[in-house]
Design a protein that fits this description.
single chain, alpha+beta, two-stranded antiparallel ribbon, 4 strands
Length: 83
């Protein structure tokens, strides 16, 4: 295992980790970070993980939207996998 020293920096209300280029991560790469105690594991995110995070962000954005007047709330979705 290679051990490389780096440091963290404050970036607005977040803390960023500076990764040396020799670690092989491209700029603007979506990553998954897992924390186990004081150990962080960083790996490129899979497409499914990226898409699920984008979908969750979209849903979060819709939570404040009021229902549109005139929508029938008794629509039967049973044939579409929803009940």
């Amino acid at each position: 295992m290679t051990s490389i020293k780096s440091r963290t920096i404050q970036s607005g209300d977040q803390v960023a980790l500076l990764l040396p280029a020799e670690l092989g991560f491209a700029a603007d790469l979506a990553v998954t970070i897992e924390r186990h105690g004081d150990v962080l594991t960083i790996r490129p995110a899979t497409t499914a993980v990226v898409q699920s995070h984008e979908l969750l962000a979209l849903i979060d954005g819709l939570e404040g939207v009021a229902p549109t007047a005139g929508i029938d709330e008794d629509i039967d979705f049973s044939g579409y996998g929803r009940s």
